[in-house]
Specification:
Blueprint (H helix, E strand, L loop, with lengths): L9 H23 L6 H23 L6 H25 L5 H8 L2 H12 L7 H17 L11 H25 L8 H23 L9 H26 L4 H8 L1 H14 L5 H18 L1 H17 L1
Helix pairs in contact: 1-4, 1-9, 1-11, 2-3, 2-8, 2-9, 3-7, 3-8, 4-7, 4-11, 5-7, 6-12, 8-9
Amino acid sequence: MSASRKGADLFLFQLMLLLCALWGSQQVAIKLAAADIAPLLQVVLRSAIAAVLVGLLLLWQGGWRAWLPSTWRGGLLAGVLFGLEFFFIAEGLRFTSASHMAVFLYTAPIFSALGLHFLLPSERLKPAQWLGIGLCFGGVLLAFGGGADWAHLDRRMLLGDLLGLLAGLSWGLTTVVIRGSRLSEAPAGLTLFYQLAVAFVLLLGYVLFTGQIGPVHWTPVAIGSVLFQGVVVAFFSYLAWFWLLRRYLASNLAVFAFMTPLYGVTFGVLVLDEPLSLNFVIGAGLVLLGITLVSSHAWLSKRLRAARGAAEAR
């Protein structure tokens, strides 16, 4: 299968621009509608909508039942971690900005790389990737408020940033579970259904138990946010990503995926008028550089070898 996967082309670039824009805007959509519908309830509804759509797709496609005996345990664990990821996102957005959440959430590749390093011999980290991890965590510390007077930091924003980092950790561990189990070979729709369905059940139970449903105002913004997240992001964009993974080299996809936090920060500033501190901008830059080194190591190494070979040929 991997031998038939293609390198980057114009279609991949265009589709990844669209997907990164969608992923970068989902935190902004949650924050934008938070006054009308609680972030956690938005996540519950988006999971329900997307789970129904993916379930109908699975019924239409068929061939997934044979995978249930060997994947349900990994599927449940992936679903729990997926639910935790969006629990931390929804709760974190109550305290921090969408721009901050976009950056801290996308530390996920760092955590997945660390987990796979210890789980799979083929995923051992190279020196440049360790450098990327160091840059990323240095950037996180700076974005948290490095160089500032900690006594005067906004503790609510600090809590939200920490929840964003925990969301990134949960996402990274989800990737480790999928790669380290039979889910890596199962139909993509089944893996996504596990995540959405389990997250819906767990988060709905939490919302009902804690009474966090709150007053809901079905304004156009609230309806648009829930439908956008459920249909466009959690259904269309996730399935499109799995489709790309089966047709293109993962190293090429990783190069483009780093654009997502850039979109998130840009939309947060333009749509929500969120301020950006110098510490955060520099820290976010280090995080993105670290993620690029870790996720795109194979692609970068290939390009460096090609450039070296061309120089020697002259």
